[in-house]
Structure formats: structure tokens, C-alpha cells
Design goal:
Layout: H1 4-9, H2 11-19, H3 27-63, H4 69-74, H5 78-101, E1 121-126, H6 139-146, E2 149-150, H7 151-157, E3 164-165, H8 167-187, E4 191-192, E5 198-199, H9 201-207, E6 219-220, E7 225-227, H10 232-236, E8 242-244, E9 251-260, E10 279-289, H11 294-311, E11 316-320, E12 332-340, E13 345-354, H12 358-363, E14 365-368, E15 375-377, E16 379-387, H13 388-398, E17 406-407, E18 421-422
Parallel strand pairs: 4-9, 8-14
Antiparallel strand pairs: 1-11, 2-3, 5-7, 6-7, 9-10, 10-16, 11-12, 12-13, 13-16, 14-15, 17-18
Helix pairs in contact: 3-5, 8-13
This protein binds one RNA strand through α3 and α4.
RNA sequence: GGAGGGUUGGCAGAGCGGUUGAAUGCACCGGUCUUGAAAACCGGCAUGGUUUAACGACCAUCCAGGGUUCGAAUCCCUGACCCUCCGCCA
């Protein structure tokens, strides 16, 4: 959520910046609520002051043995008035808060204005899409050929948008997870974490999934808990309600978790294959840094994700998302898109975002600035490093061979017990 | 599932319903002393908000939400979380 001060003072420029991401800030509503809030707060405070001083007088009078009955008569209706004023204030604050929670983050100046993904800017490309001298199969056909990937079996066990992997494909997925965690912990200095896969609503509000995006989540236990849609939620919330020492920054966490998404609203999209599943594995990078470091950290974190693609020899391009395609809580997002031969195009495999202080404000995640001695909000960032299901898919398609077998990327061979090729 | 105990500032830990935003200790910051350090001594040290040009003034916060009261950290109710014992269990 945004700094409430912005909502009070600089609404015009705020509205202009939010208009860039096609968000229509209701200035009229905001201003009238704000005026109402100010008045209600002043009233409530004045009554509070009076009550406090009157009560103190009564206390003193009683202590010195005076008759307090007349004093009590004077304050007879004060409590009722105060309660009414408080109720009015609470009501306005609740409305303002509800409004504030639905306002997205402000895009950084370097983010291009745009409507949807068509307006995203390509920043760079790495690798060359492979050329095949045989008919290219998609990963579903390759998996079927290997007899190690079964969507029908998964649907019988669960429902559509689930998969089962067996044998060397299941192992390849595990190898990818190990490999990614090893690179990020050993070379990029992230701390490995293990976190809950079921989280409460506060945690989801902290990272911005709630209140706006409840329909994308799977709820459990009468809505008391939710399956995580990404490790971002539990990992970022590790610093909730805390004040970090400057010496412990930057905080860099990496976690492998399954992710669960209801995919409400994407019926009919990517129905075939691994691209869009209700359950998938992901290795997630999360950083918490001082405000002054977050832009550099964003570039570095994106580089860490890119490094995985490069080591796996997967061609990709790096996209700077336009204002219209960015997530709710983000100030700036790079998407990494991997080459998929079967679709003859690039598809998202990682999304790396800088959230500024937006999530930290909701979580009350702070650090103590030694220069001022005061707590300041952290900046939070995260990125997939990488989405494992989609990485598996990309390997199958980019490394497929004419006989239906699949070559294992060199860096993964040690993680596959020396196996260099997957056969049926 | 059953029975008990608990939740107070960065930490530990006091707190008869009335000037307690909260004793005390530790930690931390500044100073005195010292060649330097330690010790000792002195002082400072929560967060958020309203208002103000500023100094300041005021308000809120002792797990959360209700209630009683002129007045609640303190009394009552509900909930969350933590701990102990019993039962069950990977």
C-alpha cells in the first residue's frame, strides 16, 4: 500500500502517475473521505482530551476526599459523545483503508507506459533458438513418448491442470530444483529457507495478493488458510513486524516451494501441457534492502535468474514490462521469456519485481537507519529463479532429438547421476 | 480431543481501577574520568497519528476485538498465538 501521506497531500500527481497504469483514482471520493476523516479525527481528539483531563480531576478530587458527585454529573454525557465521535472516525478510516488497499503501486519513471503485454519493451536477448532438421514436437508429445508425463492420470486423481511425472522426468525436475538452489546459495549468496505452504490472510495482505485477488487462491479450513500461490508470500513475510539491523542487510532468501493457483479467469488459456497448472514447483529469490539500494538489487536479482537460463543453455529474452502489464504491487518488473520451439515464440519463465516499500508498509517490515537512528521501511524484491515446471518444459522442447529422446543440459548431468540422455 | 499456565518497550521483567507511556536491569547512544580501553558516574534512548512555518501541543498504542467505568496495562467476555501435562499420531 502507498504512503498515506501521498493520499493526503499530493493526490494530483499521484493520480497522474497511477493513470499511467490505467488506474483511475477517484479523487472526488478520496478528497471527501479525507475531509471527513480530518473533521472526525479532530472532534474525537478534542473529546478525548476533555475526557482525560476531567477524569484526572475526578481522580485528584477523590484522592483528597472531596465529594465527586457534582463532577460526575458534569461529565454525564461525555462518554456517549466520545463514543459516537469514535464510531464516526472508525467508519471513515475503514472506508479510507479499503480504498487505499485497492490502489496499486506507482510505476518507476523508467517503466514505459502501455496498455498490455504488446507494449512491453525488449531489453536484450541471449542465445540462439535451435534449428531442427525433423518435425518439432511439443513437450506434451515428448513426455508421452518418454511415457513419463501423464496429464490424464493426474486428472483422474485430481482434475484438469495437474500432471504426474515419473522416472527420469521426475528426477529431472528434482535435479533442476537442486541445481537452482545450489547456484543461488553457493554463488549468489542467498540463504536457503523452508517455509509454510499454507498461510493466513495477513501474510497475503502483506505481499498484496489480498484483498484484490482472492479468486486466484485456493482456500483451506473455511478460509482460515490459503495455499501459497508463490514462495514470495511466506518468504517475504519472514521480516513482517520486525526492525532489521543495518548490518544484517541486504537480506537474501531463496526457497523452493510448490505453488498453487486457481487460474480463475484463464479458462481456455494454455489448456494443453505444463504451461499453466494448478500446482507447480518454483525456486524463488527474495531480497530486502534499504530504499537506496533497491534499483541496483533489482538488476542484480534479475541477473541471478538469467544466470540459470544461461547455464542451462536456454535461449531467452528479457522484457521490461509496461505500466499496463505490471503486477499490482510492483514499481518495475522484468520478465524473462524462454524460447519454446513448439510455439515458435518466447514465453514467461521468470518475473523479477521491485516492490519499493509497498509490501513493507503492509507488513511493517523495517530497518534501523544508523544515520538517523530511526526505523525506515525496507524495500522488497523478488523473482523466480526459475519456475521449475516451465524450465522442464523448455528443456524438453529445446533439447529434443529426432528419435524422441532428450539430451540433458551439461550442468544437470551430475545431478542426474551421470545420465546424459532421457529415453522412453 | 481433555486439563492447566501465559502474552507488557530491542531483550529480561515489575506493575492496590486514578498524574503509569509504563518501575528496575541489560543492550544501545552521548558525556565525565583515563595515555587508551574497561569499570564507575552523569545524561539520553518506543512507535504511529493529528495539528503547527517552526518550537511545541494533543491523541493512540501494555496480543486482538468487544464490554463495565467519569477513568482500564489492571475487572468481565470472545478470539488468536505460545507453553506444560494427558490422549492420539508421521
Amino acid at each position: 500500500m502507498l504512503d498515506p501521506k501521498l493520499l493526503r497531500t499530493d493526490v494530483q500527481s499521484l493520480a497522474a502517475q497511477l493513470a499511467r497504469r490505467n488506474f483511475d483514482l477517484d479523487l472526488e471520493l478520496l478528497n471527501s473521505l479525507e475531509e471527513e476523516r480530518r473533521q472526525a479525527q479532530l472532534d474525537a481528539q478534542a473529546l478525548q482530551t476533555e475526557r482525560n483531563s476531567r477524569s484526572k480531576e475526578i481522580g485528584k478530587a477523590k484522592a483528597s476526599g472531596q465529594d465527586i458527585a457534582p463532577l460526575l454529573a458534569e461529565v454525564d454525557d461525555l462518554a456517549d459523545k466520545h463514543k459516537a465521535a469514535e464510531a464516526r472516525l472508525d467508519d471513515v478510516l475503514a472506508k479510507l483503508n479499503a480504498l487505499a488497499m485497492e490502489i496499486p503501486n506507482i510505476p518507476q519513471p523508467s517503466v514505459p507506459s502501455g496498455k498490455d503485454e504488446a507494449d512491453n519493451q525488449e531489453v536484450s536477448r541471449w542465445g540462439t533458438p535451435p534449428i531442427f532438421d525433423f518435425p518439432v514436437k511439443d513437450h506434451v508429445d515428448i513426455g508421452n513418448g518418454l511415457q513419463q508425463m501423464d496429464f490424464e492420470a493426474a486428472a483422474r486423481i485430481s482434475r484438469a491442470r495437474f500432471v504426474t511425472l515419473t522416472g527420469s522426468l521426475a528426477r529431472l525436475q528434482r535435479a533442476l530444483i537442486q541445481f537452482m538452489l545450489d547456484v543461488h546459495t553457493l554463488e549468489h549468496d542467498y540463504t536457503e529457507t523452508y517455509v509454510p505452504y499454507l498461510v493466513n490472510a495477513d501474510a497475503l495482505r502483506g505481499t498484496g495478493q489480498l484483498p484484490k485477488f482472492a479468486e486466484d487462491l485456493f482456500a483451506v479450513d473455511d478460509g482460515q488458510l490459503y495455499l501459497i500461490p508463490t514462495a514470495e508470500v511466506p518468504v517475504t513475510n519472514l521480516v513482517r513486524d520486525s526492525i532489521q539491523e543495518a548490518t544484517s542487510l541486504p537480506i537474501k532468501f531463496v526457497a523452493h516451494t510448490p505453488c498453487f493457483r486457481s487460474e480463475a479467469g484463464s479458462h481456455g488459456r494454455d489448456v494443453r501441457g505444463l504451461i499453466r497448472q494448478h500446482q507447480f514447483e518454483k525456486v524463488e529469490l527474495v531480497q530486502m534492502v534499504p530504499a537506496s539500494d533497491s534499483e541496483a538489487a533489482h538488476e542484480a536479482l534479475t541477473g541471478h535468474a538469467e544466470s540459470i537460463l544461461q547455464r542451462l543453455e536456454l535461449p531467452y529474452r528479457k522484457m521490461l514490462l509496461c505500466t499496463g502489464d505490471m503486477g499490482f504491487a510492483s514499481t518495475k518488473t522484468y520478465d524473462l521469456e524462454v524460447w519454446l520451439p513448439s510455439q515458435n515464440t518466447y514465453r514467461e519463465i521468470s518475473s523479477c519485481s521491485n516492490f519499493g516499500d509497498f509490501q513493507a508498509r503492509r507488513m511493517q517490515a523495517r530497518w534501523r537507519n544508523p544515520d538517523t537512528g530511526k526505523p525506515e521501511l525496507l524495500h522488497t524484491l523478488n523473482g523466480s529463479g526459475l519456475a521449475v515446471g516451465r524450465t522442464l518444459l523448455a528443456i524438453l522442447e529445446n533439447f529434443q532429438q529426432a528419435d524422441g529422446s532428450v539430451r540433458v543440459p551439461k550442468v544437470l548431468v551430475p545431478y542426474m547421476g551421470g545420465v546424459e540422455t532421457l529415453h522412453g
